[in-house]
Write a structure and sequence with these properties.
Elements lengths: L16 H9 L7 H11 L4 E4 L6 H13 L5 E5 L3 H17 L4 E4 L5 H9 L4 E4 L1 H9 L8 E6 L2 H6 L3 H10 L5 E6 L4 H10 L4 E4 L10 E7 L5 H11 L3 E5 L3 H13 L4 E4 L5 H13 L4 E4 L12 E6 L6 H8 L9 E7 L4 H11 L5 E2 L36 E4 L3
Parallel strand pairs: 1-6, 1-7, 2-4, 2-5, 3-4, 5-6, 8-13, 8-14, 9-11, 9-12, 10-11, 12-13
Antiparallel strand pairs: 7-15
Helix pairs in contact: 2-3, 3-4, 6-8, 13-14
């Protein structure tokens, strides 16, 4: 959903009238900053590296140019996504545009029946959205012909690398024709992505709406230093305070289940979402979270970029992420599409180093809060040269951030 505070429109971006009519029909009136910068370049046929946080409108930044290109020439558009949930959401976003041009889409994900996907591929879809492993399965069985691809999109590329998909991505890229347009979208730019760009893209242009590692614009952040055994007590206090939807992150699948059961014991509706759950179970959990059936969704990092839900009031990092970059992706689940949101993190006294890594990445100090009903803890070692902490949300002082919107050419 576009940011209503932006006065720009989709007119003047090079979009054909038929797509403009569709955008009007689905009530997309105001483009986001990444759409304003990426769409014209993509329509010109440029290879693009898009650096933007989750919830900034990246999907339509590539879906609109892809449908427009496929409306003018033969071939297939291919989108690779790291998780099943994200692939499904991209498919849902692409369908209204594709169907208006008489194009079919196919979504190829693990955990879903191969037969249904084979049937979908036999209908000659013009847009294919896939997770890397399942796409390779279909290529190996000759269900999908990679030589037909005229546009490739790698969405959440850094997450795909984090999840160990680098060998599969490299294999897929070797199958594809060299004469194609490639777009890569990512919230952060690790060196592996620069390697992909140098090897597989043609003079890509970088479109950046926030520096790599920048958190979502309208999210406020808060840190509690708490002993492990006091986390559930603090969680109970927070759930009583916040009335809206809460997304909670756990490091492990085992702990996610334990936390979910504890939340139910507190009297709140909750569901769990992680890789031990079947695709149908994960779909039910996500749909129940969207509709309000569940107040709390307890997830591991598999959901950090697989959940596109507007209106999440609070993200809780019950466990700090193992990788500081995942902090940015986690808290990006709230404050989406111009809305306000809040993120609370629990850190144990021995996690000063983990907090310092996060603060270094986001270039800001996490405001420390104390809850009046819990003992106050301190880190067992200094946080280093971080700037002085600002008051947290319990002091009702809002955090402000500067945004640096920029555009630069990527050099090979």
């Amino acid at each position: 959903m576009p940011n209503k505070n932006n006065t720009a429109t989709f007119y003047g971006l090079g979009i054909v009238p038929k797509i403009l009519d569709i955008l009007e029909h689905i009530k997309f009136k105001v483009p986001t900053p990444i759409q304003i910068k990426a769409i014209p370049l993509a329509i010109q046929g440029k290879d693009i590296i898009g650096i933007a946080q989750t919830g900034t409108g990246k999907t339509h930044s590539f879906a609109i140019p892809m449908v427009q290109l496929l409306g003018q020439k033969a071939g297939v558009g291919l989108v690779l996504a790291p998780t099943r949930e994200l692939a499904i959401q991209i498919d849902e976003a692409c369908r209204p545009l594709a169907h208006a041009f008489g194009m079919k889409t196919a979504c190829l994900i693990g955990g879903a029946p191969m037969y249904d996907q084979i049937v979908a591929l036999r209908k000659n879809p013009r847009i294919v959205i896939a997770t890397p492993g399942r796409l390779i399965d279909h290529i190996g069985q000759w269900n999908f012909i990679p030589e037909q691809v005229v546009m490739l999109v790698l969405d959440e590329a850094d997450r795909m690398l984090d999840m160990g998909f680098a060998p599969q991505i490299d294999k897929i890229l070797r199958f594809l024709p060299r004469e194609r347009q490639t777009m890569l979208f990512s919230a952060t730019i690790p060196k592996e992505i620069m390697g992909i760009a140098a090897k597989h893209m043609k003079l890509p242009v970088s479109v950046e709406i926030a520096p790599s590692g920048t958190t979502a614009e309208h999210v406020t952040q808060e840190l509690f230093i708490v002993k492990k055994e006091a986390k559930l007590r603090l969680l109970s206090k927070l759930l009583a305070r916040y009335q809206g939807a809460v997304l909670l992150f756990s490091r492990t699948k085992f702990n996610a289940r334990k936390i979910m059961r504890s939340i139910k014991d507190m009297g709140y509706s909750a569901a769990e979402m992680h890789s031990n759950r079947s695709l149908n179970q994960r779909r039910e959990a996500l749909e129940g979270f969207k509709t309000g059936k569940y107040k709390v969704l307890v997830a591991t990092d598999i959901a950090a970029r697989g959940i596109d839900v507007t209106g999440i009031e609070l993200v809780i990092n019950y466990d700090l992420p193992e990788d500081a970059q995942n902090y940015v992706h986690r808290i990006g689940r709230t404050a989406r599409a111009g809305h306000q949101g809040h993120a609370v993190s629990f850190a144990t006294p021995d996690q000063s180093r983990d907090v310092r890594d996060i603060e270094k990445l986001i270039k800001s100090t996490l405001p420390v809060s104390k809850h009046p009903d819990l003992p106050h803890e301190e880190f067992s070692e200094s946080r280093g040269n971080a700037v002085q902490a600002k008051p947290g949300r319990f002091q009702h002082k809002k955090q402000n951030k500067n945004r640096n919107f920029g555009f630069r050419a990527f050099k090979r």
